[in-house]
Design brief:
The chain is of the alpha+beta class. The chain is built from 9 helices and 20 strands. The protein has a 5-stranded antiparallel β-sheet, with no helix packed on it. A 5-stranded antiparallel β-sheet has the order 11-10-9-13-12, with no helix packed on it. A hairpin with an 8-residue loop joins strand 7 and strand 8. 24% of the residues are buried.
């Protein structure tokens, strides 16, 4: 599954000193995506600057690093050990005033820094360390308590103490607080961890029994027993069919079912018909324009708010090679760019679609992208035209539906009916 993230970083910084002057500073950051999920095992691009005077001060030292997050979304680097861009870390005069640490991050590993944070570097830890070192110089401390030596506490290091002192006691990210993930509790986690990932007894059919009738004798298969019934005429209710005295369940489709190369996001009252979305976006991740023809009106043939098939056919007739509609039709003749109302129906099931496709273990599938920065800002095209230069689209991060210039790059998700 692919997930495009742009999310502010929470960080913890501590200084490692020799005497009163730091040679390097240890920096840690926890990386999360827009849904609050940790970004694990990913290479980042970072630029670190030491600013003098105030948060908007001039940089006295700048360096670049490319750390890799661990399985918990954590990066750990030593400031002063990267590739210098400006100045010398060892030559900074820390006594000359206040200093601030500025971090800029590119989640894709490059230098397109989209995440920034600034915090003050306090001088108190340096003085405290120097005073302590002066008092305990050349003193050998030996722990003599045998109970301590055999306990878990004996393995606690200064790094463990620093990590504990700098831990987050509560989530401070406003994006997380407003997301669905904020409502996940311990019971939800326990239920998820205990879910059945496969059929535990090895068979997906051994619980299915068949009711059959031979004359007046009704029998339930697999040792379910039989009885004599004097009623000779039956009428099937909803979801039931009777063929040659054989009673069975009609197959019903449901939202979230993987079917016909996509995922079902709408089912009508019969359970037999509905709409399917493709398993990933078709725009390559950077979005596409409505079409290359951006100043000519298609007209009523592409104005339907409900008939995406008709809109798609009209778009392709005007610009066959590069339109957003053609990307959808490339999946097959049944696929099309959804109309404005169909995009609205799709996003009614956004949370369910994201949970299924972002956790299916398939790198080629992903949910609906909630992107807050360029190039697309999380907007999706519909096939409904508004005028010569505008068409309707949907913004995933806010749920807004509006008409936008056809030249705007937006994401594309194909749908089909069944």
């Amino acid at each position: 599954m692919k997930r495009f993230i742009t999310l502010p970083i929470a960080f913890i910084a501590t200084a490692l000193m020799l005497s009163q002057i730091p040679d390097k500073m240890s920096y840690q950051a926890v990386i999360r995506d827009a849904g609050g999920v940790l970004v694990s095992n990913t290479t980042l691009g970072m630029q670190i600057s030491i600013l003098m005077g105030d948060p908007a001060g001039m940089p006295v030292y700048v360096e670049n690093q490319n750390p890799v997050t661990n399985e918990n979304g954590l990066i750990s680097i030593e400031i002063g050990g990267g590739s210098p861009v400006q100045g010398s870390f060892q030559e900074i005069d820390w006594s000359s005033g206040n200093f601030f640490l500025k971090t800029e991050t590119d989640p894709s590993g490059g230098t397109n820094y989209s995440i920034s944070g600034i915090t003050q570097i306090l001088s108190v830890p340096f003085a405290m360390y120097a005073k302590t070192a002066e008092n305990v110089e050349n003193v050998d401390f030996t722990e003599l308590d045998p109970a301590f030596e055999t306990s878990a506490a004996s393995s606690i290091t200064s790094t463990d103490i620093d990590n504990w002192n700098n831990k987050l006691d509560e989530e401070e990210d406003p994006l997380f607080q407003s997301s669905a993930a904020a409502g996940i509790g311990e019971n939800d986690i326990t239920t998820w961890n205990n879910k059945l990932d496969m059929e535990v007894d090895g068979s997906v059919t051994n619980e299915i029994q068949t009711i059959s009738r031979n004359g007046s004798m009704v029998t339930l298969s697999d040792g379910g027993g039989s009885f004599t019934d004097s009623v000779n005429t039956y009428r099937a209710g909803n979801g039931i069919k009777i063929v040659d005295f054989q009673i069975s369940m009609e197959k019903k489709h449901y939202v979230g079912e993987i079917y016909l190369g996509g995922i079902i996001f709408f089912v009508d009252h019969t359970g037999e018909h509905g709409l399917i979305a493709s398993l990933c976006d078709l725009d390559g991740g950077n979005g596409v324009t409505y079409s290359d023809v951006v100043d000519q009106e298609i007209g009523e043939a592409a104005r339907s708010a409900t008939d995406g098939v008709a809109n798609t056919n009209a778009m392709i007739a005007q610009q066959k090679s590069t339109s957003a509609a053609q990307l959808c039709r490339n999946l097959g003749p049944e696929w099309y760019l959804p109309s404005n109302r169909e995009v609205y129906l799709l996003f009614q099931q956004e949370i369910l679609i994201d949970r299924i496709l972002d956790n299916d273990g398939d790198p080629d599938t992903h949910g609906l992208v909630q992107e807050y920065d360029k190039p697309t800002r999380g907007r999706y095209w519909s096939s409904t035209e508004e005028g010569p230069k505008e068409a309707w689209g949907h913004k995933s991060s806010s749920g807004d539906t509006s008409h936008l210039p056809k030249t705007r790059t937006q994401r594309v998700r194909a749908i089909r009916a069944f």
